[in-house]
Amino acid sequence: MARAEETRSWEFDPAIVVENDIRDHQGNLIAARGQRVNPLATSGLSKKLVFVDGDDPAEIEWALGHGSDERAKIIFVDGSPFESMKTHQRRFYFDQEGKLSSHFGITRTPALVEAKGDLLLITEKAIPRRQS
Predict the structure, then answer these.
(1) CA distances from 30 to 15, 45, 80, 119 (A)
(2) Is residue 56 part of a domain?
(3) Which residue range forms the structural domain that includes residue 104?
(4) Measuring CA to CA, which residue among 53, 32, 43, 47 is closest to residue 98?
(5) I want to staple 111 with a disulfide (CB 3.0 to 4.6 A). Which of 58, 76, 89, 106 is the partner?
(6) Exposed e or buried b for every residue in 65-82, given b needs 16+ CB within 10 A?
(7) 35 falls within a domain
(8) From what superkingdom does this record's organism come (predicted)?
(9) How far apart are CA 46 and CA 79, in angstroms?
(10) The total number of structural domains that make up the chain
(11) Beta strands 48-53 and 111-116: pairing type?
């Protein structure tokens, strides 16, 4: 995935339209066919999602600035989260096959996903980098 050369943001609506009735284990209707359901309306997004190239130290440092493990999930789109977990003594995650970044339309890193009411605000952020 490419580095963000300029900062850009957009809103993402996570709502879906239910294709079939959804019922719980007792047969109670949870959502009716055709109903629009937004998961943020009921459960919210408890942590920021921070997407980074795990091979880029500048992106990892930027991500670490977005909060503790309880406040932000740092998700690698490249690199080894296991080595970084040892170094930084916190959890890191990996975007398997780019499914999450593709779902949100993220094409550049670092990127931040955070709740904004019933929407998600996605920002690909241009950050300062050291010259080699």
Answers:
(1) 15, 20, 40, 21
(2) yes
(3) 2-14+44-124
(4) 53
(5) 106
(6) ebeeeeebbbbbbebebe
(7) no
(8) Bacteria
(9) 25
(10) 1
(11) antiparallel
